[in-house]
Amino acid sequence: MVMLEGRDLLSMADLNTAEVSAILELAADMKAGRARPRCEKTLGLLFQKASTRTRVSFSVGIFQLGGQVLDLNASVTQVSRGEPVIDTARVLDRYLDIVAIRTFDQKELETFAHYAQIPVINALTDWEHPCQVLADLQTVQEEFGTLEGLTLAYVGDGNNMAHSLMLGAALVGMNVRVASPADYRPHPDIVARAAAIAGDRTEVLVTLDPVQAVQGAHVVYTDVWASMGQEDLAESRVPIFQPYQVNEALMGKADGSAIVLHCLPAHREEEITAAVMEGPQSRVWDQAENRLHAQKALMALLLGAA
């Protein structure tokens, strides 16, 4: 029996294969109306980065579980005046039942979790974005009926999304290929961790060649070329990443049944063309919806909802 009550989710690697499956199964049941767990708890959102999908899906999710949300925007808390993370964590631990944190430094998230006893969820850091990947896996499973044996190709910046996708795909038995420019590849520690999780079951490939990554893939995934906090670098990155654009020509190399995913927000005609994003292979809007269902399931399990 999978036991997630009281746990943190700071990285996809905090989960095992059975736990990911349990989250996805509950998310599917809740989306279909087959399960309606109740949880009258209080969620705190401690966000230091802008957010649309994450903020709204967490807020709606806890309301639908029967709980409530407190939006602890850093600018209106003592965090903005330099209160240490270790102090904030120990205080909020006594008020809240669960907290989702969106920040820059993964170490800050880990420090908060060390000093708080309540479940802490990574709602995005510069290192990982595990909640997005749970929704991504739910979307792929809805499309193909399974995850094991499929191939996911990520094309673009080897950023937090690439990191969590590599770990998540390895956990569920998917092949994962990442194509990035030489100076923008995913961190070697993440590559090694994903390869260790995958073992001999599946392929973990990092390449400079987007065609090699996409050839025969069932899922083609991309993200913006400059993440939050890197906006001043966006223009200079365009010529570097232009060969990695997900367009109709690149999609022609994928499996005939392939779908396209993007975690949003998207810059049409940069990392993805409008024709692909709005085309028949796109599952971007289903993917965005599934943030709600996957996070509801995650919170229900972490809180031990009835």
Briefly summarize what is shown.
With 306 residues, the protein is of the alpha/beta class. It has helices spanning 17-31, 53-64, 85-92, 106-115, 130-144, 160-172, 188-198, 210-214, 234-241, 248-251, 274-277, 284-302, and strands at residues 42-47, 68-71, 98-102, 120-122, 151-155, 175-179, 204-207, 219-222, 259-262.
Task: Please give a structural write-up.
- The structure is a single chain.
- The chain is an alpha/beta fold and 306 residues long.
- The chain has two domains: 12-128 and 291-302, Rossmann fold (3-Layer(aba) Sandwich); 131-287, Aspartate/ornithine carbamoyltransferase (Rossmann fold, 3-Layer(aba) Sandwich), CATH 3.40.50.
- The protein contains twelve helices and nine strands.
- The chain has helices at residues 17-31, 53-64, 85-92, 106-115, 130-144, 160-172, 188-198, 210-214, 234-241, 248-251, 274-277, 284-302; strands spanning 42-47, 68-71, 98-102, 120-122, 151-155, 175-179, 204-207, 219-222, 259-262.
- Helix 1 crosses helix 5 (130-144), helix 3 crosses helix 4 and helix 5 (130-144) crosses helix 12 (284-302).
- The longest helix has 19 residues, at 284-302.
- It starts with 16 loop residues before the first helix and ends with a helix.
- It catalyses: carbamoyl phosphate + L-ornithine = L-citrulline + phosphate + H(+).
- Belongs to the aspartate/ornithine carbamoyltransferase superfamily. OTCase family.
